[in-house]
Structure formats: structure tokens, C-alpha cells
Design a protein that fits this description.
Elements (H helix, E strand, L loop, with lengths): L1 H18 L10 H4 L10 H7 L50 E2 L1 H20 L4 H4 L2 E10 L7 E9 L8 E4 L11 H4 L6 E4 L4 H4 L3 E5 L4 E5 L11
Parallel strand pairs: 1-6, 2-5
Antiparallel strand pairs: 2-3, 4-5, 6-7
Length: about 230
């Protein structure tokens, strides 16, 4: 029986070499794979019976084309190289009402301060400060600089480079009927404003802002008209 198998292998090799004389000796073991060779046209039964090597180069597996069943996953629509993920831009939150209400005295005081800063910059030549202009006054809520462990309210000039997206703007303008300008209407007007620092928004929300002109300090009143304690 072994002699018959050896003779059959020799016959198969002769047939293959005559059918494809220019084919390389490298090839796949088609008998084990159980598939039909397209070059030598061996049947699956003959391949299994003879367990012969197919030397046809047309049946060789190319390293650039893997036969793995997971090869098709490279064409997945979720491939990061082939699909561009569009990032959704978050819309800026525009409150319906300003964070704080301004007394007439505070409104006039802030407007006069900003007018003085603008007129001073107009009289000076172009400088680095002109490229980063003052856009308003910021209401802050910070720790006291005196060294005492307490919080205080304050205000300072705000430049365009230090404006944070979470700082809330309060318009210093009034409408024709005397009511304050709403945030949605004042967002793109390009006028100086009062900006509530992001750390102070929740603390002063709904309060009324007044100014002590002598001490140059803000005074905040709650809804009941009581002076707000920054440490409360």
C-alpha cells in the first residue's frame, strides 16, 4: 500500500510539472485545505488520497491578502483612518435674565470708569495693551488679600485675553423704556459690560449690585434687601 502511494505521488508530480513547468516549487498544501486547485485541476478526492503538494503558483496565498475571516473588518465604517468624526460644537448658554441687577448708581459708576479707560487709551500710541483692550469690569469672589481667612467681593478691569467662556455678562445699557438690556440682545453689541466671574455666579445669582464709591467696593443685596456676607 505504501508503494502505491509513493508511485502515485511521483505520477502526480510529473503531471504537475508538465502542466506548469514555469511554476515555482513553493505552493500551498491543497490536499490539507480541501480546496480545488485552479491550475492543475485536481479533484478534492485525488488531493486527499495522494496528499500531494500543488506547485502551481496561481494558487499561492499572497501575504498581502490574508485569508483570515476577520480581514473584512478593515473595511469597517468605524475605521478611524477612513471616517472623519465630526465633533459637535456646544452652543454657548445665554441666560434669559442677567445674573445680577444693577442700581442706577452702580451702572453710572461702571460706565464712567470704562469711559475714562477708553479715553486714556485713545490718547496714547499703539501698544501691547491696545492689542488686548479692556472690555469691561469683572465682579470677583476671591480670598482676602489681607491674610485673613475669609472671602470678599471685588471688581477689576477685564481684558479680552482673560475672559472665560463661563463668565456671565451683564449689560450696562438701558432700553428706551428704562429696562435693562437682556443678555441675548447685548451679547454681540460690542459695548463694555460688567462680567460676573465664573466662581461668583452661583454666589451672587439674583442679587442686586451697588457700589460704595468711597471705598470702591461692591455691595450686594439679596432678594430681601439684606447685605450679602461673602463668607455666609
Amino acid at each position: 500500500h505504501r508503494l502505491l502511494i509513493m508511485e502515485s505521488r511521483k505520477v502526480v508530480q510529473r503531471v504537475v510539472s508538465s502542466a506548469a513547468p514555469n511554476a515555482g516549487l513553493q505552493g500551498c498544501w491543497s490536499a490539507l485545505s480541501g480546496s480545488l486547485c485552479t491550475s492543475c485541476s485536481f479533484s478534492q478526492q485525488e488531493q486527499r488520497r495522494n496528499r500531494s503538494y500543488c506547485s502551481a503558483s496561481a494558487y499561492r496565498q499572497s501575504p498581502s491578502k490574508p485569508s483570515s475571516p476577520f480581514a473584512s473588518l478593515s473595511n469597517s465604517p468605524f475605521d478611524a483612518d477612513k471616517t472623519k468624526v465630526k465633533k459637535r460644537q456646544r452652543r454657548k448658554f445665554i441666560p434669559r435674565k442677567a445674573a445680577v441687577a444693577l442700581t442706577p448708581k452702580a451702572r453710572e459708576f461702571f460706565q464712567s470708569l470704562l469711559e475714562g479707560v477708553t479715553s486714556t487709551h485713545d490718547s496714547k500710541p499703539q501698544s501691547k495693551e491696545e492689542k488686548d483692550p479692556v472690555i469691561g469690569i469683572q465682579l470677583t469672589y476671591t480670598q482676602s488679600t489681607s491674610g485673613e481667612p475669609r472671602m470678599v467681593f471685588g471688581f477689576s478691569f477685564l481684558r479680552a485675553s482673560t475672559l472665560h467662556p463661563n463668565d456671565e455678562a451683564v449689560s450696562l445699557e438701558l432700553l428706551d423704556d428704562g429696562s435693562p438690556k437682556l443678555p441675548a440682545d447685548a451679547m454681540e453689541d460690542g459695548l463694555p459690560k460688567l462680567y460676573v466671574h465664573r466662581d461668583a455666579v452661583l454666589k451672587v445669582l439674583g442679587a442686586t449690585l451697588d457700589v460704595d464709591e468711597k471705598k470702591l467696593l461692591p455691595i450686594l443685596y439679596d432678594k430681601e434687601g439684606n447685605v450679602m456676607d461673602p463668607n455666609a
